[in-house]
Amino acid sequence: MTDVFVSLEDAAGYEGISYEAIKKKVQRNPALFNVRKEPVSSGGKPRILVALSSLSKKARRAYKEAQNIEGGDEVVIEERTNSDDVPWYIDADLDEYIKKFGKRYYEAVELAKHIQEFLNYADRDRTGFAEEFAAQLGMSQRTLYRHSQAYLEASAWALKLGKQDGKNYDYLKVLALCRKPKETYTFPSLSEPMKAWIENLWFDKRFAENQGTIDMLYTKLQQVASTNSWDYPSYPTVARYIGYLMEVKRYKNAHYLAEKGERMYRNKKLRKALQDMKSVPVMGLVQGDGHTFDVWVEYTYPNGKKTAIKPILVGWIDTRSRCIVGDIICHTPSAQVIKQSMLNMIYNEVGGVPQWIKIDNGKDFTAETLTGRKRTERMSLDSEAIGFYRSIGIQDDFRSLPYQPWGKAAIERFFLTLINRFEKWLLSYTGTLTGSRTSSKIKKDIPGMLERGELITMDELCTLWRKWRDEEYHTRKHRGLKDQGEQWHTPLEVFQNAERYFKAVPPRSVAATWLMQAEERVRVYQVGIRRFGYEYRAPELDAYIDDYVNIKWDANDVTRLHVYDRITGAKICEAESQELLQIAPRAPQKALEEHKRAQNQQLKADRQRLKELTTPLEERIGQHIAAEDNMAGVFIGQTAKGKAPKVVALPQDKQYKEDVRSKKAARPAAVENDYYQKRAEAALAKLKELG
């Protein structure tokens, strides 16, 4: 077989060494290499060719692959991928590389086409073809051979990986022709102890809580570096390293946890599952919470005093449709207010009895009278437990965890809509004051607005609220309904047309008893039950004398008490107050309390008058508090017979006394005091004469 000769340039490429290296190797060992010289047609020194048999086994394999001599896939893979060093492009992210180095990649795509053309050349004088081909590409033959070897190696890796998982890895051939990206974020000037110190301080809870800055950290680093004999880096290097930790390593959430604490982290950063609100029927799950209006209104107390308050909305929202199915606006929420809002829901046209409710963690929503369990118990395992929620037909209630408002996402989102679309249109809106947005607070002269009558009243707010709720919110397209794939896009349409949970509402007469006030352990006396300053009697109470019972009463009618057995809970009777029944067939608790206050004020005033009227004359004179209506004309001069003067009775006429009082009130204080002083001195002088 005729030996094949190749140029020194090709031999260097096949061996994977430089031209000078192969040239010196041939010169030093002429006996090991079969060399011949070939004249050049253009003149000059002849070209030196070396026999392929004189080269290494590696070079001969490379020559065969370059000539498209098939040696079998397994042979190619074994020869090209047996190195311990895995090329950089095997683990590279193609999309990321294209995004960062798009120009390089697409230039390599064009180059790969030319390399493939070069490798497919099978005619004679391959050396001359390589020289001309390299010149056309604007590169040296050595570079052309280097790219060819990289391309063949990448082809072998693509073939190997493709056999493993059946995928196409031809893009590796292109990446092999690209420049390897420069390693970033190495920070050679930062030693490992220095990196650890920076991380320890930057993520320290105390440092983060105080909103420590990079400048503070670098100043401290200089001191520590001097103590530990470190060669501390420049300020930009430290700043870039912290930026690398926060932005590249994505440790921002860890720093937020150290800076803001676990509560804020749970609220703002903790992952949350998306609630499938379409899976529940209308009235299947209702969420309840209270919202303090960021609006001031004029509020009138029972005694007539007016003040400015920020009222509270207790609202219930249907999770599926986002309709407000029950609400009440009040001064201060309580368990009684929650009851009334629930009754507003179950008897409302846009409402009904819900299957489940999710309530706020506040003490108003979780009162034992409502849930049937103590506030410390979040859920009931007792099937016999009952409370107001269950008594009206609700299967069970779920309590939102403290400081986790996302548990009631629907109603919390509604409150934001309420602020932006309703409250901000009111003149007395003063903004939302939160820990993260203190700039949202709006300063307004609320006392001045109250005095000038510029604040709307509670009744006016309730009217505006109902109008906005029914005419705007319920009929406006809701983006959340679109996102959850509803056929209808307004809350009212979904409420009226979507599948619905239905449970019959209880009679209103029964609902009236649920609104009764409750008091535990009231004693039964021989005269009955004492409450509100009156005695309530009934024959059934005779068996409970000197024992305790439970009572309820209607705040709108306190003429009777509903009495229940303390142990069994069975109703005993309805005890009535005969004195109250003689006043009116119904007596509201509020009116009765006002009446009792007025009676107490009257009794106090009459006691004071009685004390003044029963004070002896001597004490009045001694205290300088004598009045003309009980001292005028007391003494008369001696008679002709020389008898002692007689004491005349004090005037008893009420009209006269009133006239004296009015005259006394009209005199100036100084003159009145002077007058009494003179009269007292004259009376004393008369007494001395008589004595």
TrEMBL record:
N-terminal signal peptide: none
InterPro entries reported in the protein's UniProt record: Integrase_cat-core, Phage_Mu_transposase, RNaseH-like_sf, RNaseH_sf, Transposase-like_Mu_C, Transposase_Mu_C
Coiled coil, from the record: none
Gene3D superfamilies on file: Ribonuclease H-like superfamily/Ribonuclease H
Domain (Integrase catalytic) ranges: 277-499
One Pfam family, short name: Mu-transpos_C
Name of this protein: Integrase catalytic domain-containing protein
